[in-house]
Amino acid sequence: MTWVGKSALRKEGDSKLRGQAKYIDDISLSGMMHGITVRSPIARGLLKKIEYLPGVNWDEFITVTAKDIPGNNYVALIKKDQPYLVDEKINHPEEPILLLAHSNKHILEKARSLIKFHIESLPPVFTLEEAIKQDPIIWGTNNTFKSYAIDRGDVESAFKDAHILLEGTYETGAQEQLYIEPNGVIAIANEKEGVTIWGSMQCPYYVHKALVPLFNLPPEKIRVVQAETGGGFGGKEEYPSVISGHAALLSWKAKRPVKIIYDRMEDMVATTKRHPSKTRIKTAFDKNHKLIALDIDFTIDGGAYATLSSVVLSRGTLHASGPYFSSNIKIRSRALATNTPPHGAFRGFGAPQSLFAIEKHMEFCARELKLDPVKFRKLNFIKHGEILGCGQLVKEKIKLNSVVEKALIESDFHKKRKAFVKTNKNSPIKKGIGLAVFMHGAGFTGSGETFLASIAAVKATPEGKIEILTSNTEIGQGTNTIFSQMAADALNIDFSDIEVVQPDTAHVPNSGPTVASRTCMIVGKLVEQASKDLKQKLISAQLLKEKYTRKEFISACKKYIKEIGELKGSSQYKAPSHIVWDEQKYQGDAYGTYAWAAYVAETSTDTRTFETTVDKFWAVQEVGKVINPLLAKGQIIGGVAQGIGYALYEEVIWKEGRMANNKMSNYIMPTTLDVPEIEVHFLELPYSYGGGGSKGLGELPLDGPSPAILNAMEHALKITLRQIPMTPEKLMAQMEEINK
Amino acid sequence: MKKMSLTVNGKKLTVSCHPFSRLLDVLREELQLTGTKEGCGEGECGACSVMLDGKLVNSCLVPLLQVEGKKILTVEGLANKSLTPLQNSFMKCGGAQCGICTPGMLMAGYALIKKKKKLSKQEIREGLGGNLCRCTGYSPIIKSVQNCGTKP
Ligand code: FES
Ligand code: FES
Predict the structure, then answer these.
(1) How far does residue A220's CA lie from ligand 1's centre (Å)?
(2) B103 vs A: CB within 8 A
(3) What is the mean pLDDT of residues A637-651?
(4) ipTM computed for the complex
(5) What is the location of CATH 3.30.365.10 in chain A?
(6) Are A180 and B37 an interchain contact pair (Cβ–Cβ within 8 Å)?
C-alpha cells in the first residue's frame, strides 16, 4: 500500500481534538514570572529618560532596558538594523523600549501605566511618497532597503513601435495574519545553562540564530523548541525572534523562567503584517494584441527596519510579469522605509501584491482592447520554451491552458458572463464573474536553497519505529502527516510506524525555515532520501533484502540497533542541475518549478449599500503530485478565505504609523457567513525533484482571489477597480466619482 | 477571594477565586483545563466557547460569580476513551488544522447538534458565526458538523 496520494488522517489530530495539544500558553513552569513589553507611544524620536512613577513596589519587578543586554542589541536576520530594545532612537510606534516581569500577571498592567518615557520627537515618514521624497531620511542614505532591476530586450523601442500603449497603477493594503493563537514564548536563561525557549513559531533555527549574538553565547548554549502552534501564515516566521529575545532577557535578569504572551491588541498593533504595495504597469501591444513590452515599477512599504523586506521584494519582483510572455521587459522594484512597525512575511510573500497588479492590468487591457479576457490572456500566456519575466526558460511541460479550461468549465464562466449582464439590468444587486491566472514558484528563490543546505534525518527507535527529524514545524498545514506519508512509502512501511519529532534545535538538524511552500516539496524530498539512506544501511548490514515486508523491516531495525548501534539516515539538499541562477545579474532559474493556477470568483454587489459578497469560488491548480488530497484541499480553501478577506474586508487603518483598528471587532476577517462554497480542483504533473512528486501549494490561494474577485466586480459594475481591500466605503467613493 | 462551587465536565468542584475572575482563567489556571483557548479576550473569536447549563457562552466574558452552582462542559469533557462522533467527524473532514479554534468550534457544533438533529448548511453557518477560524476557510468545519450525525 502506498500512502502518498491518500487522505491520511492528521497525525496530531487526536490530541488537538481532545484539547490536549499543548500550545505555549498551556504550559506553566514552576517559579515562572510573566513578562510584558512597554512600547513607544510615538513614531519617531529620541528617548531621553525613563521614569518609574510611584504606585507599585518597583523592587518586586524585573526591569530590562537596552543597557541590560549581555550581548549585541540587534535582531539577527538579514541586516543588523533592528534593536531588541530602543537604546536612543525610536523608529516606529509600539517599538519595544522596556521589559517588565512579575510573578503576578495582574499587576503588570498597572505598572505599565506608571512608566513614563521622556521623548524628543523627530519628523516621521508614513507613506511611500514621503519615503521617496527622502524628507526626512529615516533609514540608510535614501530610505531604500533594497532595489532590483530586470532588463530584457529593448522596452523603449518596443514602446515606439507599439500599436497601443496601456498604463495603470495598482495598490494593495497591509493585511494582518490573524492566527487565532497570538505570539507567545517561555524562556529560561542564565549564565550556567544558557538559553532555552519554548514557543509558538514557524522557524526554530531563526530564533536560534537571533539569540546567539543577543547573549554572546556559543550556539550550543541556545536551545529553541517549538510548542504546538496555533497558526502562523508567515506571521510567526521572523517575529518570534523578537519576543523570544525579550523573554530570555527578562529571564536572564530574573534567574527564573519568564513567559510572555501577547494579548490580541498587542499582537495586532505591534507585530508584522503583509507589505502594502504600489505597482505602476505600462504595456505595449502589437496590432494582434500580443504583448510586446512590459514596464513595471513595483514598490513595497517595509516599515521601520529591513527585516525580510528584501526577500519579500524579490519574490514580488520575480512574479511581477505573471504567467505572460513578453520579449521586452523592464522591472524596477524597491522596498522603502517608513516609520511603521516592520512589515513582514505573510503567506505569498510579495507575490500576491505583484500578481494582483498584473492580473488587474491584463483585465483592464482586455477591456480597453474590447477583447474577451480569456482569449486575450491565452494569446499572451507563457509557453514551454519561452522565457518568464525573471529570465527563466520554461523547460518543463506546463498545463496552463488545461488549468484555465477546467476553471472555465467548472464555473460555467462564459455562460454566466453573458447571463449576468442581462439579469443585472433591472436589479440593484449586480452579479459578476471574474478570472485570475497566475503561477507561484516554491522554495527559496534562486540559490537560496543551496545556501540553506538543509538537512533532514530519520532515525529508528529500539522498538523499530521511525522518527523523522527536521526543523520544519507543524503549524496546521499538515507537516507531520505528509512527512509521515512520504517516509512510509520510501521505507515501504505503515503510516502508523512513523513519528515526527518535536522541532527542538537540540535534537533536530536544520532543515531550514517553514516558509515559502518549501516544506513538502524541498524538505519532503530530503525526508524521502534520508529514509532511503536508512534503508540502505540495513541492506548493507545484510539485515534486510531489497524486497521485504513491514515485519522484516521492523525486526531488522531492532537487530541493527542491538548489534551495531544507532540507526539513522540523513540527506542534505543539493540543487538539481537544471537550476541555474545568476545572483549578480539577478536572472535565471528563480525557482525549481512553479505551480500554475486559474481562480474564478462569482460576486454580488449591492449598489445601494456597496457591499460585495463572494457567492461562489473555484480554485483550479496544477501542483505536481497531491500528497494528501484532504489536507491539500484544506490548504487551498483556508487560503482562499484569507484571500477573500484581503480583497474585500481586511483593512488596516493607519493613524500616525500605528494600526488604529487593532481588535477583532474592528479589523474584519471573514466569518462562516462571508466565505462561500469553494470548489477545489487539482491537476497533477509530478515534479521529480519534489517530495512525493509535489510542488509547493500553500501560498497559491493568496495570489488568486483578490484579482479574481475584483475582476468579477468590474464585470458586474462596468468600472475599473485598482486597489484592495475594496471596502464598501472605497467602492462608494469610486462610484460617486464616476457618476459625477 | 470567594469559595464557589460548580460542576465541570460532570465533576463537582469548589474553587476559591476572585468573584470577577473570568471563567476562562478559572478553567485554564485554577483547574488546569487548558483545552479552552483565548484568542481575543473580548468575545469576538469564540476560541473560549464552553457550554454553561446547556448554553454556548464565551468564557472570556463570563465572570465566575455567574457560574456558581452551574454546570460547565469543556472540550476535555467530550471524549471518553474514544473520540465522540463530532470529534471523529472533524478528524475525517479536516475540521482541525492548527487546532487552536477547534475546542471552541467543537463546543459550538455540540450546541447546534444538541439543539436540532437535522441541520441545514445555512443553520450551521449561522450557528458557528461567532467562532473564527483562520486556517480552514470554514467549509471543512461546516462539513464536520453536517456529517456528524444526530449525536455530538
Ligand atoms: S477569547 Fe473569548 S471570544 Fe475570543
Ligand atoms: S484550525 Fe487554525 S484557527 Fe481554526
Answers:
(1) 39
(2) yes
(3) 98
(4) 0.98
(5) 13-21+448-572, 31-122+177-270, 277-390+398-445+586-738
(6) yes
